[in-house]
Design brief:
Chain B: It comes from Rhodopseudomonas palustris. The complex is a heterodimer of chains A (280) and B (297). Chain A is of the alpha/beta class and 280 residues long. Helices cover 38% and strands 24% of the residues of chain A. Chain A has one domain: P-loop containing nucleotide triphosphate hydrolases (Rossmann fold, 3-Layer(aba) Sandwich). In chain A, the strands form 2 sheets. A 6-stranded mixed beta sheet of chain A has the order 6-7-8-3-9-10, sandwiched between helices. In chain A, strands 2-1-4-5 form a 4-stranded antiparallel beta sheet, with helices on one face. In chain B, β1 and β2 form a beta hairpin. Chain B has a two-stranded antiparallel ribbon with strand order 1-2. The longest helix of chain B is centred in the first third of the chain and has 32 residues. Chain B is built from 11 helices and 2 strands. The chains are: A alpha/beta (280), B mainly alpha (297).
Chain lengths: 280, 297
């Protein structure tokens, strides 16, 4: 990862990688003008990849997603420093509904489907920003991924948690986004359903070429589908690498995957892990 | 028992009731989309009626041109109110916004009196025959028109919310504004659209009432009658508003009948809806169709 200023300099030995689809550069996010949540966070999401953003509660993962999708504005939050570049254009400070039109769709934490509408109406809502005539075909496509949704014709509020998550993902697909931001798709789901949801996420990424930025508590599941991962602590990225690197990293094993070694590490090591500074 | 009077009153009740239903519907529309209780709803009727009157009586525009012009004006006017007066209030406590609508109502009343004077004005003749006879009942032609127009608007509204994507967007906004924004819906334009549609629909009702009774500031009393109708139906239910309106309209006329035949108290017509309002608030505060949150078991 490089800092914004370094991007301009030629880097010896670096392969001429194509510009990432989404690039978050050293952003700082403040809520209500006083609460500093993200303190200089940077990350890149290459075109067509699945990237996982991991970390403990309160690390600022959801805030990062909301900063990208612009929904921060609806919660009195603001990007006060740094920039967010999507598809070559700056999108920090843009209204959330306009960001959807540019091709970023966020599946919010807790699914947030419209419970007093049917699942079909929810899917049609997902296509709100589109004016082409292929909406009906895309509804069929979503039903192909999630056959169960087709059978449930009642109000979406009565769907099970897993079905609601599927509906939320289906609704995102209806917008034909370039990129989907997923906030904890595994929340409240049984292990079997988590597996199913993640395999569908992988499938969607492969079939449709949708780039996915995935926020997860369930690090194991997330790293099983992601090609690259970032680990956040207290509003910063503390570690990043390919999914394999992260899986093999001793600290990640200890803190996020569980069951690393035979004996627990001492608190001294824990501190040193947190203190390891990175200037992304 | 005076059957003929009763039937006549029931028909009146149905006609006036559907009109209440239409106004209640436009009232609920604003409430549903923006959570604002609009105390200036009656004035929207009045503005519509005055504008149409001015076009027809002053500028001698034929009705079939004047009416669409009125509607276009009211649509733009609704958007203007939202942008100029209410948009800066977004994010303020809802009670402040409601106070603003009370202020709007006063300002509109005063301005209209200033422009059009305080005297009631008769509406120009629109139909060649005053009344038509249906099954032996004399019904004013304008009432027939009113019924047809009201039902058409109700069907239109149902289509809008059930099928059109802007209707879905409005429902999503009513459900959760953050969710709506995450779907690419601009909450500000939904609010503007809610006011525009509400003002337009109210204006239709205003013109219909004005054709029957002439235009006067008393017309805005319809805005007050809307409260029992909307609350009976459940404040956030469009269908409930329609049904509530019809029930209130029938009730008024039944009260009128009982009053004139048996009780001779006078004025029961005016108060009956508000007794109903009190009773509903006591026994069914959510109204007949007011939504309670879905609980998944």
């Amino acid at each position: 990862m490089t800092e914004a200023a370094e991007l301009d300099r030629p880097q010896p030995g670096a392969s001429p990688a194509p510009a990432p689809l989404l690039s978050v550069k050293n952003i700082e996010v403040v809520y209500d003008d006083v609460i500093l949540v993200l303190r200089g966070l940077s990350l890149d999401v290459p075109q067509g990849a699945i990237v996982a953003l991991l970390g403990a509660n309160g690390a600022g993962k959801s805030t990062t997603l909301k900063a990208i999708s612009g929904l921060l504005k609806t919660e009195d939050g603001e990007v006060t420093r740094g920039e967010i570049v999507f598809d070559g254009e700056r999108i920090d400070g843009v209204d959330p509904d306009k960001i959807v039109r540019r091709g970023i769709f966020q599946v919010m934490e807790g699914r947030r489907i419209v419970s007093d509408m049917t699942s079909l109406e929810n899917l049609r809502l997902g296509a709100f920003t589109r004016s082409d005539r292929n909406v009906a075909a895309d509804i069929d496509m979503v039903y192909n991924y999630f056959p169960r949704l087709k059978e449930r014709t009642g109000l979406a509020g009565y769907l099970s948690g897993g079905e609601q998550q599927m509906l939320a993902i289906g609704r995102a697909l209806m917008a034909r986004p370039k990129m989907i931001l997923m906030d904890e798709p595994s929340m409240g789901l049984s292990p079997l359903l988590v597996k199913e949801v993640f395999s569908i996420i992988k499938q969607i990424n492969r079939d449709l070429g949708v780039t996915i930025l995935l926020v997860e508590q369930n690090a194991r599941a997330a790293l099983s589908v992601a090609s690259h991962g970032y680990i956040m602590e207290q509003g910063k990225v503390v570690l990043d690498g390919t999914a394999d690197e992260l899986r093999d990293n001793e600290d990640v094993k200890e803190f996020y995957l569980g069951g690393a070694g035979d004996q627990r590490k001492s608190f001294k090591n824990l501190k040193s892990f947190k203190r390891r500074k990175r200037w992304l | 028992m005076n059957t003929h009077l009763l039937i006549q009153l029931l028909v009146n009740g149905l006609v006036v009731g559907t009109l209440y239903g239409v106004v209640a519907m436009s009232f609920v529309l604003i409430y549903k989309a923006t959570q604002v209780v609009n105390f200036a709803q009656g004035e929207l009727l009045l503005i519509g009626a005055w504008v149409c009157w001015a076009l027809l009586a002053k500028y001698q525009v034929p009705f079939y041109v004047g009416m669409p012009l009125t509607l276009v004006f009211m649509f733009a006017f609704g958007i203007a109110i939202q942008i100029v007066v209410l948009r800066p209030m977004i994010g303020e406590p809802i009670i402040s916004v409601i106070m603003v609508t009370i202020a709007l109502s006063t300002v509109f009343q005063a301005t209209l009196k200033w422009i059009f004077g305080v005297n009631p004005q008769p509406f120009p003749q629109i139909f060649t025959s005053q009344s038509v006879s249906i099954g032996g009942l004399q019904i004013q032609t304008v009432y027939v028109m009113s019924l047809v127009v009201s039902i058409a608007m109700m069907i239109g509204m149902a289509w809008f919310f059930k099928v059109s994507k802007y209707g879905l967007a409005m429902r999503a906004t009513a459900f959760d504004q953050q969710v709506a924004q995450s779907l690419g819906i601009s909450v500000k334009s939904v609010f503007a659209m809610a006011w525009a549609i509400s003002a337009t629909v109210s204006a239709v009702a205003g013109v219909v009432v004005a054709v029957v009774n002439g235009v006067s500031s008393g017309l805005s009393a319809y805005g007050i009658k809307v409260f029992p109708a909307a609350i009976l139906g459940g404040l956030d239910s469009i269908g409930g508003a329609v049904l509530g309106g019809i029930i209130i309209g029938l009730l008024e006329n039944i009260a009128q009948y009982i009053d004139s035949e048996y009780l001779h108290w006078g004025n029961l017509y005016e108060i009956a809806p508000f007794y109903v309002l009190i009773i509903i608030l006591m026994i069914k505060p959510y109204g007949l169709f007011g939504t309670k949150d879905i609980e998944r078991i």
